[in-house]
Amino acid sequence: xxxxxxxxxxxxxxxxxxxxxxxxxxxxxxxxxxxxxxxxxxxxxxxxxxxxxxxxxxxxxxxxxxxxxxxxxxxxxxxxxxxxxxxxxxxxxxxxxxxxxxxxxxxxxxxxxxxxxxxxxxxxxxxxxxxxxxxxxxxxxxxxxxxxxxxxxxxxxxxxxxxxxxxxxxxxxxxxxxxxxxxxxxxxxxxxxxxxxxxxxxxxxxxxxxxxxxxxxxxxxxxxxxxxxxxxxxxxxxxxxxxxxxxxxxxxxxxxxxxxxxxxxxxxxxxxxxxxxxxxxxxxxxxxxxxxxxxxxxxxxxxxxxxxxxxxxxxxxxxxxxxxxxxxxxxxxxxxxxxxxxxxxxxxxxxxxxxxxxxxxxxxxxxxxxxxxxxxxxxxxxxxxxxxxxxxxxxxxxxxxxxxxxxxxxxxxxxxxxxxxxxxxxxxxxxxxxxxxxxxxxxxxxxxxxxxxxxxxxxxxxxxxxxxxxxxx
Length: 473
Ligand code: F0G
Description:
By secondary structure, this protein is α/β, with parallel strands linked by helices.
């Protein structure tokens, strides 16, 4: 085991060699994978309207749609499932969950929810008044939807580098303080209930926020009465980037970095389906008692009683254990190391991806992959379809389809980033699977000139990317 930590940007692999991130576990149970023929995949893609969200997982070979709820649980977590206290109220498992969040994230008051968007809904309804403005470090689909449904307007105040897939800025998730100040001056601090800060930033390519940035945001906001609320969904991965890249943190553990980061924020919402290593679950946490009282009251309307919030007792137990496993340094290093392995391979082979390689996924840069396709032909959606047709590997569009329409003008929002996400589930696939993925991406890259794009033939009103249907051109 290497003792030293890497000193420069994403060079862990080079410094330690190919085995630097070897998994700190061995496999106890396996699930067979299914392969399909090209004809079967063509039929499945047609039935799914060329939208990877509409494929049946039985038709998928390696599933990189998302890292959400797709982790493998540990033997300890499965043992914890047997200790479910399925009481309607006051389950023992809730108190385990509460103390795990308090211990590892440092917040005072916890509200469980069925998953991240349940928490986003509650926090948006409690903190946002119609006409409010919510600055954040790039939008996330469900987060912004709930902020807008509560009557808020989201403003992207992330640094410009985040929108450039080739910028090597080490903290592309940072908020641009000048943009944040300009918004405060324009609309007034009393119209900004909180800054919506995500670590890491999913839509930017899994890019981190630095400790210096969160401290500066706090220093700016606190005197103005603006809260700092954290989307902690992948904050453990963010902590690894701080350990690797920020001065003064090389010798601090992931757990210490996580606690310090959270201490500069007033609360957090969590999709526990990611970092926390469970298949379903979420939570909300705040330090302010009055906010907590409102949240605890509202949770019973939408999720369930405040001691289960939509989760079974056994799920809360697995979550409490997952929180503790997730902050172990060797776990995070191996998890991000695997993502980086895939990204470095693709980079070596000349495939355009978002740099630096992020924490949870490799993002293919569909604009550079298919320079001949206009954004209205949905290049990232096309690439996801081509990759599925080639090998049965499932990825996700994160471009113009995900961005949706401007509620005022009705036109497409046209994000600068047009990406196809290869999202790596935690503790599920092996290095050989990563090789297969890279080979299939390369095959699509070699055939890139034949891609013609897609036409949208069905468009749902909310979060259209989930259920939209397409036809090849
Ligand atoms: N915040 C972030 C940063 C997310 O990535 C997600 C979900 C949520 C909130 C919502 O949480 O799904 O538990 O309701 N992201 C998934 C993904 C869907 O594939 O990236 P949820």
